[in-house]
């Protein structure tokens, strides 16, 4: 099976998952998704407090060797057991999730276009572009409501690592994109054009 590999990058809270889900829904049964977030390094070597101090927006925090190996295997037609990640405990979770090879493979993550070994593996590279203030508001909402974080900790982490790493790595990686999509998965014009192009490439 030859798969069409679609990379979806963009800053935190930009709408990557929303776009991924829209494509998974539209191409149900024909698409699989792989998430860079699931390839954050395991940190059983550190205690819970130490894990809150890491820079999770640095490319060094991802196990890209494993991600490249898994994506290469998937594209070659073999299923992979992807790790999963626990954002509440800031560590790799025990559970794995099986990803089946499909005609469309979607790969999502803030830094996938900043990693020179991953970027060339994508046939279509999409960058979801959303203003920083909107992304920050979404991030506060998510981290406080879903990840058990305090407003102070979100603010501290945003200023210490999220914002500077975005400016250093994520934003410049936009130049590696084929298409820049303002507002991601709810941009219906972009979504329709994208679906048309994917159908065309699969035909
Ligand atoms: N175009 C949009 N308009 C309004 N809210 C959106 C839009 N796209 C995403 N969201 C919301 O913003 C939040 C973050 O979106 P998400 O897709 O999870 O971003 P990311 O995966 O890039 O972190 C979610 O609550 C989602 O429902
Ligand atoms: N333990 C962790 C690991 C990562 N993050 C943040 O996740 C963001 C990337 O995921 P998105 O869904 O927002 O694209 C990234 O900005 C990390 O700071 C975290 O909060 N905790």
Automatic annotation (TrEMBL):
It is an enzyme of class 2 (transferase). It catalyses: uridine + ATP = UMP + ADP + H(+); cytidine + ATP = CMP + ADP + H(+). Pathway: Pyrimidine metabolism; UMP biosynthesis via salvage pathway; UMP from uridine: step 1/1; Pyrimidine metabolism; CTP biosynthesis via salvage pathway; CTP from cytidine: step 1/3. The keyword ATP-binding applies. Residues 5-189 form the Phosphoribulokinase/uridine kinase domain. CDD domains: UMPK. Its EC number is 2.7.1.48. Keywords: ATP-binding, Cytoplasm, Kinase, Nucleotide-binding, Transferase. Its main location: cytoplasm. It is found in: Cytoplasm. InterPro entries: P-loop_NTPase (IPR027417), PRK/URK (IPR006083), Uridine_kinase-like (IPR000764). One of its GO terms (molecular function) is uridine kinase activity. Belongs to the uridine kinase family. This is Uridine kinase.
